[in-house]
Amino acid sequence: MTLDGATVEVVRSYLIAAAEEMRTTLIRTAFNPVIYEVLDFGISLYDEKLDLIAEAPGLTFFLGANDYSLQKGVEYVGAENLYPGDIVMLNYPYWNAAHAYDATLFAPVFLPDEAAPDADGTLVGYVCVRAHWMDLGAKDAGYVLDSTDVHQEGMLFPGTKVFSRGKAVRDIHELIRFNSRMPDVVLGDLHAQVSAIRTGERRLIEILQKFGKPAVDEAVAVIRAHSEQNTIDALAALPQGSWTAVDWMDDDGISEDPIRMQVTVTIEDGTFTVDFAGSAPAAKGPVNMPFGATIAICKVVLKNLTSPEQPSNAGTTVPLRVLAEPGTLFHAVYPAPTFTLWTGIVALELIYKALAQGMPERLAASTGGDVPGFMMVGDHPDTGEFFAISNNDPVGWGGTPEHDGLDATIHISESTVRSTPIEVLEARSGMLFERLEMRTDSGGAGKHRGGTGLQRDIRFVSPGEFLSVIKKTRTKPWALEGGLEPDPNQVVVFPGTDREERVSTKRVPVQPGDLIRLLTAGGGGHGDPAERDPALVRRDVSEGYVSREAAASVYGVELDE
């Protein structure tokens, strides 16, 4: 059948609205602040061929990863073994494209047959919700920083029904309950994901019943073809060529040895190829990337370059080719540990670093280089109950060819994700925040300077463990076109005492009165600092972004009182 453009757009809007309603349901019902405050989730709708038809904003990497994990999950379970009301859980890292605490739940959607209401109906699609859980039987509470085997990282579900024909599978729920240090929160989040899935099922069925499946199929085909052609056309408009870049991560959580990352990005003949040859072999510690997660970060870059303002679907990433040899850093295989997936964050910056060689006039400099994450675990000082709560701190974004980078903003790898509010962190843990402010001179200087990073001082009011999760503290974020590189992220434990130490990824026991200071990186500068408008330098000094001394020594702008 042939549809007019208006009908195609109406169908697209209905599908996106269904995903958005799933998102709202998850946020309103989740128990875990990582989900309802930070938005650490991914929500997607698929047709019966497992092709993406709509998604809702969440953690960028999760959206791309859902495509891979759904394919693996359905392959493992078998579409012929799925029935109305089933919900399947998958967290096996090598299939799930994430670590073991990122639980993916998916469900088949069946269109009822009005002529045979008692039959199962016709399989017409899938709905998928991925979200971060706080505890699922790993060897350590909170985050696992030094595992050497995937079995130290939590219970593994390769594709297990948690609901069968609409009824909870009690044995699986109880298995989860008895293998979590936070069973109420974890099961609460499971049921929040179930609520979102049921919402998506209902809405997808309503859309198919309203327009008819042939019309929806035709609309989806038109949308997909249009997105694919848009991507190909956008790639053709970009500089053609091949560019290689190298960067280093601090360590793997086991040794102090830096880890080499290399990528070659090629744009030619309507394809976008990302090749990680030259990167380190698989690491002993938990920084290895499941291949699905590697594909997901490459999808982020392709989408950003070609169609940043358009909704995603299966056509968006057709031109993508990702290469990584099995058994290497970017293609983990069993039983390689995968829990600390900051590798993907640093690698996203690395891909842009390679591309910037061919198109510096189009791209920003590095955004802080990494995501400075932290967590506290312990017993709550008021209730005595075990808690685990985390936060990803803002960094400065890189200067662009046209303007300064954003100040103190969540890293580009995380899309709409937010920091955990101080009010939530203090209420749910033994942390007291004495200082949170932007740091003067933390952004890389340039014609367009990098945005500033933060200083966060944390005083502890109860004993527990503090976990820092950062993988780029030894090497600086990169700059462009003569801009300057900012200082990297830093974690200073017990500053001003004889125990003071600078760390990156570490689990640190803390006692009441202890202090830990986080210094997040600014963005890289873009362009020669000598070319910066002196009026902008004066403004930066007056507002505290740049010091008087840096104005004179770096920008050549002398200021009187």
From TrEMBL:
<protein>
    <submittedName>
        <fullName>Hydantoinase B/oxoprolinase family protein</fullName>
    </submittedName>
</protein>
<dbReference type="InterPro" id="IPR045079">
    <property type="entry name" value="Oxoprolinase-like"/>
</dbReference>
<feature type="domain" description="Hydantoinase B/oxoprolinase">
    <location>
        <begin position="4"/>
        <end position="529"/>
    </location>
</feature>
<dbReference type="InterPro" id="IPR003692">
    <property type="entry name" value="Hydantoinase_B"/>
</dbReference>
<dbReference type="Pfam" id="PF02538">
    <property type="entry name" value="Hydantoinase_B"/>
</dbReference>
